[in-house]
């Protein structure tokens, strides 16, 4: 039951005491890692055996455990999420000069990976339900903005071919992977899922990252699990997995002693010492996700009755890892967003806004873009809340 | 004093017993890391404090210690050597479609980094003295093969501009950095030194990697020191260092809470946990280099009197880290190279040849190349010997 939050107080005055007493008073960063398992043991094992580099059993163990957890046939461990996305795009066939559909709302790496592959991000709006790409809207936009030329879809304005779609599961909440898959198939596009934020999130019983040709995870220090820096690509396509594995090294042809290479390799493999950390973290993943979900309940208790806005809760039919807890201000309070952010930070509560819309950033200002009113709206009034797993016990 | 090595025996029959009894009977890999210092302590500290990612004090400590050791003003820690070379090329101004001079003799990463930057490697021969690019030969080749067009030098055959030179210090032995610097200046070319193998190697009193606009090191598991996977870029140019640091992250503009980015970032920063390993390894670098030099003396004792070939020793005026010990067979024994390699491997002695000449590899077969007779000759008769620091105490 909602009740008025108070009379005459600013949104910051209302929100900050609730965060202090109820949840989120971390005294630390926005999303800090928790090492409560075998991290020290496995990392020490690496050092004692001398296997710290990309030759080492923890890389294979990490890949197998990750593939098993998400239900993919193959996982390839990569040096970080950006590089994983870059390599996945190359491996599914994105070529320099191609356009790639990217949501206007995402961490900048979604767009930069496209540029690193030599391609051009083409931004689209997101749904105000999932905060990710909506498949019906996407389909309508593609029909209106691209024309078929033989096997390819060309941008009517730029004349460039569209070759891939990269949706992202914002803050850990699954968007419509299956719907986007159908659009990708209809238009003959490669489909790479940016699941950097959504390890532990499911649409129905299907883990995010499995709907497309390949799915990408990040294990940066602020993610649900961390390997220091790290990422991974999952796929059910054995041939694609083999290509990813080959290109993520130096593309060396197996030989007893000869150094021969049949492609340009990226040297993007995750080192063994980082994978050791990852194996220990994966062992705790169910607990870490449960902590985030429990933290969400704690925020519901603290903020659920406020009328100044609403907590972002999981969409029907999905199970979210609640990677980053978020509070959506009522529209009329959007002008107070910066005051709230500054007020919280002044009070020692680590908050942040959503990312600036990608199509407003200098390096992407020349990239094609659909109108993105929902991106602009969400950006104007979302407050991301402290989300470290240590905030609940 | 040389004496005949025996009558009627093959080169393998002569070499293998000497390696077994004298040196190199490692029972392990060709070049394995040695962790005898604070590796466990520092890595454990990372885990206990939670700082394992790119935010963390070990990255800064590693950069400062590395810069101090080599005598550079700035060092930027990167996720691996290939990525460091890629980013250095981008930061010094190499553009897609440019040509970049690369030695035909190098690990494949020297060429792949050029391709990752969108440019085309242009291979040149090496000197049979330094096993790296010779500045006089390079100058003569550039004059013959390129023509000046305004500020630029264009390949007479391909019409593409030449923008950079990337020499490499083969197996740790310094090549003519100062001479190449003069050529780079004469032709207005950027100069990036691939010092991946030469941490601890000096020309006179100057450390390798300092002659050019930027120098690149690798800390892969097989290098003199390791960070698991890792690399670094050193430079005396403060503006270049700032650009490298900015591009190696997500190119975020500093702000209390806003996510704004003014360039396409590479996300190539070294994680803190890898830097922790690196700080511990750097503390032992003088000892690790002394071990390699001592191992060379051990090989001199074991193999120095053989007439079937010669150990690779440091060139006059240089101090080598002897990263990889090497034995150069007499020319007439080149046809026995593979027998020796197989014989050693069968006997449990981890050896390998030099890398296949880069201009013979499939992905670079269409790249322009000078004639490379010295590369071909060295490739045909060098045996790289076991070089782990643990082979001496």
Could you characterize the architecture of this molecule?
2 copies of one chain form a homodimer. The mean pLDDT of chain A is 94. In chain A, strands 1, 2, 3, 4, 5, 6, 7, 10 and 11 form a 9-stranded mixed beta sheet that branches. A 3-stranded antiparallel beta sheet of chain A has the order 9-8-13, with no helix packed on it. Chain A is of the alpha/beta class and 393 residues long. Chain A has helices spanning 11-22, 39-49, 57-70, 81-91, 109-116, 135-145, 177-187, 238-247, 272-283, 285-303, 337-346, 373-381; strands spanning 74-78, 99-103, 120-124, 146-149, 152-155, 161-165, 190-194, 202-203, 206-207, 214-218, 231-235, 309-311, 318-319, 326-329, 382-384. The two termini of chain A are 28 Å apart. In chain A, α7 (177-187) links the parallel β6 and β7.
- CATH fold-level topology of the largest domain in chain A: Aspartate Aminotransferase, domain 2
| Beta-strand residue fraction of chain A | 15-25%
Largest sheet of chain A: 9 strands, mixed
Output the number of helix runs of chain A. 12
Radius of gyration of chain A: 21 Å
Provide the succession of SSEs of chain A: HHHEHEHEHEEEHEEEEEHHHEEEHHE
| Poorly predicted segments of chain A | none
Q: Which pair of chains forms the biggest interface, and how many residues does each contribute? A: A-B, 72 and 72 residues
Q: What is the first-to-last residue Cα distance of chain A? A: 28 Å
CATH class label of the largest domain in chain A: Alpha Beta
């Amino acid at each position: 039951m909602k009740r008025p939050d108070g009379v005459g107080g600013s949104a910051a005055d209302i929100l900050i005491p609730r965060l202090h007493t109820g949840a989120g008073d971390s005294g630390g960063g926005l999303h800090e890692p928790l090492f409560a398992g075998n991290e020290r043991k496995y990392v020490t094992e690496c050092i004692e055996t001398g296997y710290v580099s990309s030759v080492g059993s923890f890389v294979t163990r990490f890949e197998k455990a990750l593939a098993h957890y998400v239900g993919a046939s193959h996982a390839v461990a990569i040096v970080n999420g950006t590089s994983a996305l870059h390599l996945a795009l190359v491996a599914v066939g994105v070529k320099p000069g191609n356009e790639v559909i990217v949501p206007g709302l995402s961490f900048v790496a979604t767009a930069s990976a496209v540029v690193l592959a030599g391609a051009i991000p083409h931004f689209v709006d997101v749904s105000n339900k999932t905060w990710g790409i909506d498949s019906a809207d996407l389909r309508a936009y593609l029909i209106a903005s691209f024309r078929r030329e033989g096997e390819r879809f060309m941008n009517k304005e730029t004349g460039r071919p569209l070759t891939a779609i990269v949706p992202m599961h914002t803050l850990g909440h699954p968007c419509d992977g299956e719907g986007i898959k159908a659009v990708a198939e209809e238009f003959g596009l490669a489909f790479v899922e940016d699941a950097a934020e959504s390890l532990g999130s499911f649409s129905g019983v299907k883990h995010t990252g499995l709907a497309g040709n390949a799915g990408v995870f990040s294990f940066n220090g602020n993610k649900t699990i961390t390997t220091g820096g790290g990422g991974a690509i999952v796929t059910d396509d054995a041939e694609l997995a083999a290509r990813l594995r080959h290109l993520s090294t130096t593309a060396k042809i197996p030989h007893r002693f000869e150094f021969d290479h049949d492609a340009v390799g990226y040297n993007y493999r995750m080192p063994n010492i980082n994978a050791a950390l990852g194996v220990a973290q994966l062992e705790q993943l169910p607990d870490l996700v449960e902590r985030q979900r429990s933290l969400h309940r704690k925020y519901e208790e603290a903020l659920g009755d406020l009328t100044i806005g609403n907590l972002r809760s999981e969409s029907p039919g999905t199970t979210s890892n609640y990677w980053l807890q978020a509070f959506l201000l009522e529209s009329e309070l959007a002008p107070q967003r910066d005051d709230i952010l500054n007020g919280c930070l002044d009070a020692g509560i680590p908050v942040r806004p959503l990312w600036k819309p990608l199509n407003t950033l200098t390096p992407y200002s020349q990239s094609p873009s659909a109108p993105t009113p929902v991106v602009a709206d969400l950006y104007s009034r979302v407050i991301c809340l402290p989300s470290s797993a240590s905030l609940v016990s």
